[in-house]
Design a protein that fits this description.
globular; binds NADP nicotinamide-adenine-dinucleotide phosphate; 2 domains; Aldehyde Dehydrogenase, Chain A, domain 2; 5-stranded parallel sheet; 17 strands; alpha/beta; single chain; Aldehyde Dehydrogenase, Chain A, domain 1; about 20% strand
Amino acid sequence: MTTMLTSFNARTGEALEHVPSSTPAAVDAACDAAAAAFPLWQGAAGPERAALLRALAVALETDRAELVALADRETALGPVRLNGELDRTAFQLRRFADLAERGAPFAFVDDPAVAGAPPAGHPAMQRWSVPLGPVAMFSASNFPFAFSVLGGDTASALAAGCPVVVKAHSGHLLLSNRVFGLVQGVLAALNLPAGLIGLVQGGGRDIGVRLIRHPAIAAGAFTGSTQGGAALAAEAAARPRPVPFFGELGSTNPVIALPARLATDGAALAATLAGSITLGCGQFCTNPGVIVLIDAPQSGLDVQAVNDGFVTQLAEALRPQQPHAMLTTAMRGAFEAGVAHWAQAGADLLVQDTSAAGQPPRPVLAQVSAQAFIDRAALREEVFGPGSLVVRAANLVQALQVLQAVGGTLTVTLWGMDADTGQTRALVRGAMAIAGRVLFAGVPTGVAVTAAQQHGGPWPSSTRPESTSVGDAAMARFLRPVCLQDAPAWLVERPGRPV
Ligand code: NAP
């Protein structure tokens, strides 16, 4: 019997439509089709890969109005954000197209022979990269375009030469199917195998687990919760042939603001921070969830008064914010439960207005001592939504302990680091030890797709801290080095590619 999945209107909770869940046989068929497409795609030259990626970008843009309207109904993220996200998704596809065309997946290290005895002497060697094989890609709820069917994982895997089997997110099923329809049209128009990009969907966990366990799958790419990522990473590792699993997970993104900076710019920084905390109803993996203030006395500055004043400014800037509805009712419930956990763990709730029945959540600001934050793991868990926790550290040492307790995060933001002092060096060291990206201005929401970007960090923000899911280096996740030693002349001439 076919199990039906339901798409919901994110604003009203009303059921929109039903779509059939993939059967286990359909998951196997999608993986087998991806495996069958792999030799051809692995052998495709850069311009061929680029042509597919660019055609996919055009397809998204051509149907923009319809796609954005559908995404808005299923996610409540609003047309401004969703149009921007579609632009970013098309930009990513074209950026990986450019990289493939310029030969980035085919780059190699040439190490000519050196005469003489080892260790100095050695044979001729060339270090190439080969694509891993079919990638299982798990879409995120909060990025229906940029981390979904045609998002960065799919774009970077295709550029690397890997087929993709997408697991649609249950929060935007209709959009995923609509985008997949475009994918099929583009593949057919370019005379490429339909199995090069597959799509599966399922309500429980069975379909995703079957996908990552399938023998044809060579890697996993995931954007979502720490819990979901941990479960799927364990599945990937427990296979008879374990495969790499690139999970981009939840993050608390600490912001550390030094009092001297707050004394001069507190009101403006509070307004900026309040906007970042509530942007997209706080449903960003880079949402600033922890604000660390250092209360150590300082000559010429009433630090306690400055920090207290900033907390008041932030509370005042948060109160008038009007977050929109959350992506799903389950997420709304999880947000409220997370705030309740803060309170149970001893945090003071400074801003917590009650929202009327059926209305979006109100912003939340809570405050706790650094010692409590360090002692109680419940205070360090990501609370996904428009809320943030102020952590009051007695001194620099305690602020550094707060960072250590966080352990791993996508970002740390440091405000007030202009002078080279023992304190600023220690904070930068502490931030670099736990974060993938350290910001010295602005707020962490907003992730540029560029060459130097690093979107990933130590556990629990990702399963692979050496990798990034955003930016040019994302492609490296799906490539594996192979060294050719004393390769015959014909292979060197090809170059290094026996196709
Ligand atoms: P999620 O619930 O973990 O879902 C992500 C995907 O994994 C979905 O396809 C889901 O299937 C599947 N899944 C989850 N748990 C599974 C399990 N145990 N077994 C098999 N499949 C499983 O995440 P989300 O709610 O969509 O996203 C919100 C979270 O993502 C937040 O924590 C946020 O911080 C994080 N996030 C991280 C990044 C980043 O780049 N690091 C970016 C955006 C969001 P179903 O659809 O069937 O539930």
